[in-house]
Amino acid sequence: MNAQTGVIIEIDEEALGLLVVMEEELVFHAVHPAVQRLHGQRFHDGVAARREAMKAFRSAA
Fold it and tell me: 26, 16 in Cβ contact below 8 A?
């Protein structure tokens, strides 16, 4: 069994989602309703995931 690591993406202490390492990619697990469309999306790096989460969060406001 491989250990998995996760990173929380948040804006102003508001959790948006969790990135989980799976097969050399990061899978986004949405925890905030504003970013649900990103749930399950795969990213190659955390910068891209955070950028997309921030865009989704701000466009929902």
Answer: no
